[in-house]
UniProtKB/TrEMBL annotation, chain A:
Name of this protein: Transporter
PROSITE patterns referenced in this protein's UniProt entry, alphabetically: PROKAR_LIPOPROTEIN
Residues in the signal sequence: 1-24
Keywords: Signal
Organism: Paraglaciecola polaris LMG 21857
Domain of life: Bacteria
TrEMBL record, chain B:
Keyword Signal: yes
Name of the protein described by the UniProt record: Transmembrane protein
Statement: the UniProt record of this protein carries the keyword Signal: yes
Pfam family, any one: DUF4154
Record keywords: Signal
InterPro entries in the cross-refs: YfiR/HmsC-like
């Protein structure tokens, strides 16, 4: 049987980064931006003045909005009506379901704090806030059309980045971190399974419930035409309190941007991702009988697969417009 | 998930990252005074004019040579990376004095052999007045907790390099 899964229709990512003024010493990039007159006015032992060169801390805020709709059976698109089991008179199989999610909307706000220990080492802590809703259709009376919402903090991540190589032409970074199970895996809502609130499927949970390890190896060429390549993985460990573990993911992505104006860089990107299926199962979201999965998203074996995504957008440098060191505002759209 | 749970998770992981701390701190931070001098070097390349043909004969890169300890070189390298990102038309190529075939500008923390062929036509910049090096054109010094520099106009003329009036306004002129 091929996997039936919902695919991303469109993803929009908006991010902005702020360098916090501090009294510590600074990073090379900030020194490189100092003009001759700024240098002339800068004190060697200046501990009182707020200087844009004196920033080790950074604050970044990302908003990612994604919508998933439609179904694929392998590479072939399937209409919602083909995946929804129509009830008595139609044969029930592993590829149709009495309850069907039609549109999944997700919005993730990620707040990250970064600290440059020195030129070669950086530490980041980030915490996402997730807000998501899923529209459903079903053959269950009273639940022909219904929507389930969940929101709350997701899994926080602490990571360390080390610059392996930096030349005038390119730079290499390695990042390793830990994803903490701070997001809930006990979200409930009113589903056709029974009266009142019940445990929701995996897609509606906010976290993984396990300690996981994100890794990334990245390369960036520098110049007017920048090219970057990154290989990343999310390695998940153990099983959570509900006896399952989300699948590992591995991705490779390439991005290209060029300096169109002093403050604007158009951006093009391509990413390939492989994600394995969920290991284990949350027994609370299945039903009795020959067909235990009432909806596709309750079947852990239908998760995972390969994904190719393209993205485009703009990277803007707002430093010249924003007095309080708002460094960049980026907009990415991927399909 | 409760905040107690979130704090518990972060505390547990914090211990793991404590183990990495000594590793990350092993790279010494360069003093701010020396970082400022590195940034000055980048600016000097903008306000000094080399004679026609000296830079563009065979390549577009400006050759900056450094004779310093590794920490200064690494910081300078990072500045050059950033500089080259936004100045694609005239990139800077950084190298150690001893590894270079020729230099447009040479920054010396410690003296080198004065007749090295790669620096005979270079603008020689000294990290401080304490560096004993002949033929230097620019020398850094400190005054009132700020980095200042003096120009030897005769030496600059020897290597046929012109300084802009904006740069000269900020410099102390040697011999005056």
């Amino acid at each position: 049987m091929q996997k039936i899964f919902s695919f991303p229709f469109i993803t929009v990512l908006i991010s902005c980064a702020v360098v916090l003024p501090t009294f510590a010493q600074s990073t090379p990039s900030e020194f490189a931006e100092l003009s001759l007159h700024e240098l002339f006015e800068t004190s060697i032992a200046d501990k009182s003045a707020i200087n844009k060169a004196d920033s080790r801390w950074s604050l970044a805020y990302n908003v990612k909005s994604a919508q998933f709709r439609g179904y694929l059976d392998g590479d072939a698109k399937r209409a919602d009506s083909q995946v929804l089991w129509q009830g008595q008179g139609e044969q029930r199989t592993q590829q149709n379901f009495p309850i069907l999610p039609t549109v999944i909307d997700q919005q993730v706000h990620v707040l990250s704090v970064g600290y440059s220990v020195n030129d070669d080492w950086r530490v980041h802590v980030s915490l996402p806030y997730i807000s998501q809703s899923t529209d459903h259709i079903s053959i269950v009376p009273g639940y022909e059309n219904f929507t389930i919402d969940t929101d709350g903090t997701g899994d926080g991540v602490i990571s360390v980045s080390h610059r392996l190589v930096a030349t005038t032409e390119d730079v290499w970074w390695f990042t390793i971190g830990t994803s903490l199970p701070t997001g809930s895996i006990d979200e409930t809502g009113d589903t056709p399974r029974a009266a009142g609130d019940q445990q929701l499927p995996y897609t509606m949970q906010l976290g993984s419930g396990t300690y996981d390890f994100p890794l990334e190896f990245s390369y960036q060429s520098l110049g007017k035409h920048d090219f970057s390549l990154s290989m990343s993985a999310m390695v998940r460990t153990g099983k959570n309190d509900r006896d399952y573990r989300l699948g590992n993911s591995y991705s490779i992505s390439g991005n290209y941007n060029f300096q169109m104006t002093p403050t604007l860089k158009p951006y093009l990107g391509m990413a390939y991702q492989y994600r394995s299926a969920i290991h284990g199962q949350d027994d609370e979201i299945i039903v009795d009988g020959a067909f235990v999965y009432p909806a596709s998203i309750t079947n852990p074996h239908l998760y995972g697969g390969k994904k190719l995504a393209q993205s485009w957008g703009y990277v803007g440098n707002l430093a010249s417009f924003m007095p309080l060191a708002l460094n960049s505002l980026n907009l990415f759209i991927s399909t | 998930m409760s905040w107690v749970r979130i704090i518990y998770c972060f505390k547990r992981t914090f211990l793991f990252f404590l183990l990495l701390a000594p590793l990350s701190l092993s790279a010494q931070e360069l003093p701010k005074e020396r970082k400022l001098k590195a940034a000055y070097l980048l600016n000097f390349t903008k306000y000094l004019t080399w004679p026609e043909g000296k830079i563009n004969d065979r390549e577009t890169a400006f050759r900056l040579c450094v004779n310093s300890d590794p920490s200064f070189f690494a910081f300078m390298q990072a500045l050059v990376v950033k500089y080259n990102q936004s100045n694609a038309e005239r990139k800077i190529a950084l190298s150690h004095v001893n590894n270079a075939t020729h230099c447009h500008m040479a920054y010396l923390q410690t003296p080198v052999e004065p007749f090295l062929p790669q620096i005979t036509r270079a603008v020689i910049v000294l990290e401080s007045l304490d560096v004993q090096q002949s033929n230097s054109a620019i020398r850094f010094y400190s005054q009132a907790n700020k980095v200042r520099f003096e120009f030897d106009l005769a030496q600059l003329a020897n290597v046929q390099v012109k300084a802009s009036s904006e740069l000269l306004k900020l410099a102390r002129i040697a011999g005056k």
